[in-house]
Structure formats: C-alpha cells, structure tokens
C-alpha cells in the first residue's frame, strides 16, 4: 500500500514540475548576450508583425520575398549563378511573435512545399529575430534603427514579381 501511495505522490509531483516548466519564459542555452536579451524581451504581436512586413519586400543576398497585404500572399525568387528557384504561397503572423512563410518552391531539379518560421521579440524598441528551428537570436532592428540592420532590407512595395515572371519563363 505504501509503495502505491509513493508512486502516486511521485507521479503527481512530476506532473506539477513539468507543468511549471512548460509555462516558464524561454531561457537562453548559452551565455550569448543577444540570446539573454531576447529571452527577456516580449514576443511581437501579430498586428506588429503585419505592420513590419505587410506590403514589403525582404531583399536577400541572391533574391528576396514579397509579403503582400492582399490575402497575405507570399512570392519569392532566388538565383545563384545558373541555380534558380521561385516560390508562391502564403505568410502569416501569430501573437506569439512568429512569422511563417508557407510556400511551394520550384527549381530546375524539382519542386516541394516548405514552411519557414521566424520568431520575433522586442524590448525598448529593439527587435530580435531568429529562425524558429535551430536559429540563433540576432538584433533584427536596433533602436534607433541602423542602415546595417536586417530590418533595413524590408523595402516598401513589390520588388519580386518581375523576377518571378522571369523565373517562371525559365521553368517552361
């Protein structure tokens, strides 16, 4: 009888400890100062993420992606030498600071669906960002913003459709 009670109490304590850990704020796994600051920051709301990305093109080294305000459509293209790809899909934001791109990518070698998500946190006007899976936190936008910020690569308007049309023509 004693052993059954001990197991029951032990199981109950385990559940309580696990439940408490699930609600805890994200803790940095290293002594990385940016990760520590990001952990102390608050997630951006869906509304804040939409204001940041909607109607803008995120320019990348070898292409970019456009976040349409119209039905959250997402289009992108990338080209490195003769290797190219393009994507069409949707984007969405959550109140937990997550921005996700769900797109169907096409290239010379094939096609596939992919979802990529980024986490965003903000404190004192500084926005931190990282890929949701396996990424490291970095300063996305300083306060005050700097020309070298990644957020400075978010340009107003659609700068992707023209390149996308060229990529689609190459795919035929």
Automatic annotation (TrEMBL):
Keywords: Signal. It comes from the Bacteria. InterPro entries: DUF995 (IPR009337). Residues 1-24 form the signal peptide. This is DUF995 domain-containing protein. It comes from Brucella tritici.
């Amino acid at each position: 009888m004693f052993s059954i009670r001990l197991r029951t109490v032990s199981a109950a304590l385990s559940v309580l400890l696990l439940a408490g850990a699930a609600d805890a704020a994200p803790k940095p796994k290293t002594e990385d100062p940016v990760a520590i600051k990001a952990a102390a920051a608050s997630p951006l709301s869906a509304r804040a993420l939409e204001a940041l990305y909607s109607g803008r093109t995120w320019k990348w080294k070898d292409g970019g992606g456009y976040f349409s305000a119209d039905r959250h459509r997402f289009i992108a293209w990338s080209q490195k030498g003769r290797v190219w790809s393009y994507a069409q899909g949707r984007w969405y934001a959550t109140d937990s600071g997550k921005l996700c791109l769900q797109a169907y990518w096409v290239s010379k070698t094939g096609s596939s669906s992919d979802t990529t998500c980024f986490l965003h946190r903000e404190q004192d006007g500084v926005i931190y960002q990282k890929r949701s899976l396996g990424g490291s936190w970095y300063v996305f936008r300083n306060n005050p913003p700097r020309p070298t910020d990644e957020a400075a690569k978010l340009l107003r308007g659609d700068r992707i459709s023209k390149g996308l049309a060229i990529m689609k023509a190459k795919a035929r």
